[in-house]
Amino acid sequence: MVDESIDVDSLMEAGRIARRVREKAINIVREGVSILDICNILEESIRDLGGKPAFPCNICINEIAAHYTASIEEQTIIPSRSIVKIDIGVSVNGYIADTAITISFDSSHELMVEAVYKALMEALKIVRPGVPVSVIGATIQKTIRDMGFKPIRNLTGHEIARYNLHAGLSIPNVQTIQTDKLKTGHIYAIEPFATTIDGAGEVVPLRTATIYRLSIEKIDRSKLKKEELELVDMISRNFDNLPYTTRWIQEFDKVKNLHEKMVRKGRIHSYPVLVEKNRKPVSQAEHTILVTEDGCKIVT
Ligand code: MN
Ligand code: MN
Fold first, then answer.
1. What are the sequence ranges of the domains in the chain?
2. Mind listing the pLDDT tens digit for each residue in 287-298?
3. Which of 94, 156, 205, 263 is at a distance of 20 to 30 A from 273, taking alpha carbons?
4. Which residues of the chain fall below pLDDT 50?
């Protein structure tokens, strides 16, 4: 029985939009194209199709594994012979579909792209209520290893709740000692990442961040100044307390210093850009699923 508190129609609509935007990404991501244009086009497509971005379009090139989106003055173009991860989140009434693909412009990366896709498919085959997340992790690990690559052990999939992208459980990409099990009626994102065999199989944070989220739990409204309250309310109202980019804030220059100060004070969480420790290329595949009594429904 699916948890009746879940609006499955909204969730599946978010998934339908995410699929279409993912297809669009395959068509527009090309060597030499501006990554700012790509982010803007994909986020606009989400809105045109009736959804809301659940987080900024992530576009991670080569050794960058996660948490990179174009800034407003971004000059980067897709480099030749690169490997590009596009990670898309769509919210419909707070129900989130999270999906990612890897597009490669060098045939030497193709097997590593296939490895994460195959790992995701193998994981989906064994998904049903009661399956330990460590078994999912072991399946992903074995599939990637058998194809001659290394899983990234400190990046994981995650449970998804309404208006909450990372809720509850983590779904590992390697075997772990976690005792958690998948539950009927719960929503999860499964997202294997791989790198080459000479990679560390681990990501490390860079000092830069391009994605933020309000730390609601660390905000005491009574202690905020008027201008801080206005910024918090604007972010909360526009981005539903989900991750956002300053690129989405109109006339950001006017609140730039205040925003920086709130990041320093921990009232706004910043997601550091995550890069493979040995600076080796990374591939990713991701689907959002709804666990059902006899298996799962692939949302994306
Ligand atoms: Mn994702
Ligand atoms: Mn995810």
1. 8-205+274-298, 208-273
2. 999 999 999 999
3. 94
4. 1-2
